[in-house]
Design a protein that fits this description.
- The longest helix has 25 residues.
- The chain is mainly α and 253 residues long.
- Helix 2 crosses helix 3 and helix 6 runs antiparallel to helix 7.
- It has a two-stranded antiparallel ribbon with strand order 1-2.
- The chain is globular and about 55 Å long.
- InterPro entries: GntR_C, TF_FadR/GntR_C, Tscrpt_reg_HTH_GntR, WH-like_DNA-bd_sf, WH_DNA-bd_sf.
């Protein structure tokens, strides 16, 4: 006889309809993510945004969606668009802040984001343990390629694409297709909350990738798992959920 999951413990793999951002249009989620990154100081005044294609790929939406969102953000005073060969879309020199009401959906989902991070920790630490035993030369070379791409990335959008490939290659190296499907669902839900980040911070994250790769090459399963666990656990503090809490405490103080 089939059993039912406990009603008091919703799974990230089955509760996507409960997410507040699911009630927000695609255009407004892009507006909210860029605006929230500005509010938290992740995007600085005058900073140039990646082109529309790269931004769309990094945020998991269509190019038309990004164009519409940027148009609205320009009217709201968050960004400025400049024509010409050296033009593009830039954060306004004095950007409007706290103007996008849909940011509230991200704050409403903060508990859910923390849970997704914990689920990713469990999966990736386990993958690292097994990948240290099973990952061969081709797998290590895939990781090396991703690391080089992240070192060379010129925007958060480029970095994010290579970062996703690095973690997926590591997960695939564990050789557990059934668990891989679970991992892709968890990360897919979590990536919907990622914001643009300063490249200096991201390059520091890539140094952690290099240490993880070294532990895998040395067949040091315990170290690889510990490094991966700490790397993902940092999201509790570095993602918007942790940064927003810090900012709010500062305002209250």
């Amino acid at each position: 006889m089939a059993t039912q999951e406990p009603s008091g413990a919703p799974s990230a793999l089955t509760s996507s309809a409960l997410a507040a951002i699911r009630r927000t249009s695609a255009v407004d989620t892009v507006r909210a993510r860029i605006s929230l990154a500005v509010d938290l100081g992740l995007l600085a005044p005058g900073e140039r945004l990646p082109n529309v294609r790269a931004t769309a790929a990094a945020l998991g939406v269509g190019e038309i969606t990004v164009r519409r969102a940027l148009g609205t953000l320009e009217r709201e005073g968050v960004v400025q668009r400049r024509p010409g060969r050296t033009g593009g879309t830039f954060i306004a020199e004095r950007p409007s802040r706290r103007t996008v009401a849909q940011v509230a959906a991200y704050r409403e989902d903060s508990e859910r984001v923390h849970r997704l991070i914990d689920e990713r920790i469990v999966l990736e630490a386990g993958f690292a343990q097994l990948a240290a035993e099973r990952l061969g030369r081709p797998g290590l070379e895939r990781l090396d390629e991703c690391v080089r791409e992240m070192d060379a990335a010129e925007s958060w959008a480029e970095f994010h694409a290579s970062d996703k490939r690095f973690h997926l290659a590591l997960a695939e190296g564990a050789g557990l297709p059934s668990a891989l499907g679970m991992y892709e669902r968890v990360t897919g839900e979590l990536y919907a909350y990622f914001l643009p980040y300063p490249l200096d911070y991201l390059r520091g994250s890539n140094e952690q990738h290099k240490a993880i790769r070294a532990a895998l090459a040395a067949r040091d399963a315990a170290t690889a798992a510990a490094l991966l666990r700490d790397h993902v656990a940092e999201l509790h503090h570095s993602m918007y959920v942790g940064l927003a809490d810090t900012a709010e405490r500062g305002e209250d103080g």
